[in-house]
């Protein structure tokens, strides 16, 4: 199938997912009242976007400027309905563009078209992306941030230093967590000229600090996230698992035992091998110290590494999975596990308020419990294959 057909399918599919998840689920984009709460603004005055009047949100101007300038071009001043539509349109555009850009990114890494398409499906149906606008994720500018990150990684691979620098600066105007881009460039790029390798992150960070000073230094309670994480260990573990779900297994396996595939570019493959652990640990630490773990959009910043490494794992060991599926005992195991998890999920969701205190912020724990059981089921049915692969590799290593 032509790659442009794949791109067209991804465009249509991502827009459909965006539309139906925000229509059927308790999303912040489902109505003006919910978006108003997310923006800390009255539904009648959404365009005031009051959440960006306070730190650290005031420094994240890029998405706000895109939406507000487009809204102002419509000429409908003080029209909350027009603003709401504009906000949703831009959110949908960036939602689809990020998926399509990831497809291009995977092809640049050497993945065949069908595998790149599969990787995009893993991204699109991962929990943080599938329900991006459902509390407690609170996605606003983050999808645009994912798009900028992917573009930056593409230009690191292509060794286009100017564009990496530009996207690093544009990135922190979207969200300060995108400072991870110049760090990846510094530690893991193939740039041999030291004045460029050191100069790019130094210039980016200097520009960032100057921008913060010009914008007005404003303190805020940076310990709020850490205190929440320490007070809610069960949710920290649960939402950490949900950030990538069943993909944690192949990712962690590849971190321990990496075998580069023959049809992938060695240099770019090694870039993601060497930087994966660094990026994931950095994202986990910064989120634990400065963010809230149930806002898993923050953890999902590592998706170009976790999903890509996992996809490479499935490419390497696809024959083991297909051979296992052909066995009758494994099919019985799949359906038996399905029945078991349906029963457990049904009773858990039915009695969820007995296990978790209902949220005053309107968080649907029933939804999150359902998603957790889906990924636990996928972990369960894939675990025998992972263990078999790990056992075979251990034997080969001893020989």
What's a concise summary of this model?
The chain is mainly α and 399 residues long. The chain has 19 helices and no strands.
Question: What would your notes on this structure say?
Answer:
There is one protein chain. The model is unreliable at 259-265 (pLDDT under 50). The protein has helices at 3-24, 32-38, 62-73, 80-108, 113-124, 127-130, 142-157, 161-174, 180-188, 194-215, 224-231, 233-244, 248-256, 266-290, 303-316, 318-325, 328-350, 352-355, 365-398. Helix 1 runs parallel beside helix 5, helix 9 crosses helix 14 and helix 14 packs across helix 15 (303-316). Helix content is 71%, strand content 0%. The chain is mainly α and 399 residues long. It is built from 19 helices and no strands.
Q: What's the helix count? A: 19
Helical fraction:
over 70%
Distance between the termini: 42 Å
Mean pLDDT: 89
From the helix content, strand content and strand pairing, which structural class follows?
mainly alpha
User: Segments where pLDDT lies below 50 for 5+ residues?
Assistant: 259-265
H/E element order: HHHHHHHHHHHHHHHHHHH
Report the β-strand fraction as a percent range. under 5%
Alpha-carbon Rg, integer? 22 Å
Instruction: Assign an overall shape.
Output: globular
């Amino acid at each position: 199938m032509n790659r442009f057909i794949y791109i067209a399918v991804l465009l249509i599919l991502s827009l459909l997912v965006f539309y139906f998840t925000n229509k059927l689920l308790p999303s912040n984009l489902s109505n003006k009242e919910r978006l108003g709460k997310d923006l800390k603004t009255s539904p009648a005055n959404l365009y005031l976007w009051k959440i960006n009047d306070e730190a650290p949100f005031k420094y994240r101007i890029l998405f706000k400027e895109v939406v507000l300038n487009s809204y102002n071009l419509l000429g409908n001043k003080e029209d909350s309905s027009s603003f709401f539509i504009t906000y949703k349109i831009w959110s949908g555009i960036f939602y689809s563009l990020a998926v399509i850009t990831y497809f291009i990114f995977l092809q640049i890494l050497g993945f065949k078209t069908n595998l790149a398409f599969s990787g995009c499906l893993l991204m699109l149906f991962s929990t943080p992306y599938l329900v991006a606008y459902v509390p407690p994720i609170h996605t606003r500018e983050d999808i645009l941030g994912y798009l900028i990150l992917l573009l930056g990684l593409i230009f690191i691979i292509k060794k286009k230093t100017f564009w990496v620098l530009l996207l690093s600066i544009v990135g922190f105007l979207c969200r300060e967590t995108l400072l991870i881009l110049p760090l990846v460039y510094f530690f893991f790029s193939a740039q041999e000229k030291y004045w460029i390798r050191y100069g790019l992150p130094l210039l980016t960070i200097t520009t960032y600090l100057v921008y913060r000073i010009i914008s007005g230094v404003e303190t805020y309670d940076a310990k709020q996230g850490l205190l929440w994480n320490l007070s809610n260990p069960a949710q920290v573990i649960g939402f950490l698992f949900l950030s990538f779900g069943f993909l944690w297994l192949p990712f962690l396996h590849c971190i321990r035992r990496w075998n580069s595939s023959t049809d992938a570019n060695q240099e770019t493959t090694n870039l993601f091998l060497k930087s994966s652990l660094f990026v994931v640990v950095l994202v986990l630490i910064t989120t634990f110290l400065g963010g809230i773990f149930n806002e898993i959009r923050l953890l999902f910043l590592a998706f170009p590494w976790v999903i890509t490494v996992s996809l490479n794992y499935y490419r390497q060991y696809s024959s083991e999975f297909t051979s296992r599926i052909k066995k009758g005992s494994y099919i019985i195991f799949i359906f038996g596990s399905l029945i078991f998890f349906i029963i457990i999920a049904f009773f858990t969701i039915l009695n969820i308020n007995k296990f978790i205190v209902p949220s005053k912020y309107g968080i649907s724990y029933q939804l999150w419990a359902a998603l957790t059981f889906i990924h636990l089921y996928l972990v369960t049915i894939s675990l025998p294959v992972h263990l078999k692969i790990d056992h075979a590799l251990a034997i080969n290593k001893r020989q």
